[in-house]
């Protein structure tokens, strides 16, 4: 499946970002203050908000406004303890809720400790919760500094370790790092080096231009082009965007940050200024402002995370027949994707839900256990569960990953087709090892669900003793048709 995010315009027209490729290859954004980094991140977040879970580490509180247009939960980190922050991160992974962790109001060292706690909890989530998610870290040089600064070594090591885990080891856990920094020279090299996609904005220092040019594959003499970029312009390179450096201008966004850039405004008249400056000191002070509302408790925020999916705007749902057709189509497309055979079930489940949404089904109403069964049936070429109810009942005693090859054998046996070759069983099992296929067949025989017979010519037939079905005999290897042709 391919989901393209419109990022803006380039020399050849619209420039898109391949979201699925980004989840595997990560992204680094660099640019001086005012170059448009936050605008770029907001464009990416808005374009992918309905397609993938998003987790934003926000030092300045600029991205909390995403919750007004989307289902993002805003967490004001200053109001919670480290234990509560870690628990919220666990819930975020469990429920696939999109969140913005605002670190505004915390000192630098406290920001680093909080980000380290939150990222580490995301990274340490149980395997069943390894759903794909974009983890966006703004001002990444704060959390992964290249050198020691004014903070304690303990805080720096914890924050740098969490960022290194995110960028180096997060992919297998479904965490796709998107980091933005003002200066590459201040960002730890082992963190920056793990990104394969780059968007380089305006910068002026020679050391930053040289590093940016190296990452973009440009010669040093071409680095001057980075200094000439306008606000909102970036040089892009990477498998998710373009194979050659390309200048793009980031498009508009729908939401706005709470902070705004300074703009010029008329000065007051000189006479007014003088009267204001010379006003009596004893003048009554302005009335006190009402205190801000107290922040929600950790329990209330966790409750909001638990119900984040329910907060999405309701969309018209197709009828039952059309919904079932969309589910079947999404499963068929998923099985037809050659890369799906080597992916985990939780990753495929998120992919399946995304495919359903892109086909017009906002909620597939398919739980993870149901998806495991439907995926196994799709890999075996089965559609109607009622027709295969007895077979599914027998297969319920087998582990989830064994169900697909068992159903493949059952379908061939019922229809009197040749026994599936080892290669087909390996694809259904999600492996490329023929040895594992042989051990799989031995295991199913030990469970009493199949009986394998091999004749004197080496041809294999498999029976289902509970149903009295038997496949036709065939060569067990993947090259059976060629050997049959030679005979």
UniProtKB/TrEMBL annotation:
<dbReference type="InterPro" id="IPR008571">
    <property type="entry name" value="HerA-like"/>
</dbReference>
<feature type="domain" description="Helicase HerA central">
    <location>
        <begin position="11"/>
        <end position="90"/>
    </location>
</feature>
<dbReference type="Pfam" id="PF01935">
    <property type="entry name" value="DUF87"/>
</dbReference>
<dbReference type="InterPro" id="IPR002789">
    <property type="entry name" value="HerA_central"/>
</dbReference>
<protein>
    <recommendedName>
        <fullName>Helicase HerA central domain-containing protein</fullName>
    </recommendedName>
</protein>
<dbReference type="InterPro" id="IPR014588">
    <property type="entry name" value="ATPase_Atu1862_pred"/>
</dbReference>
<dbReference type="InterPro" id="IPR027417">
    <property type="entry name" value="P-loop_NTPase"/>
</dbReference>
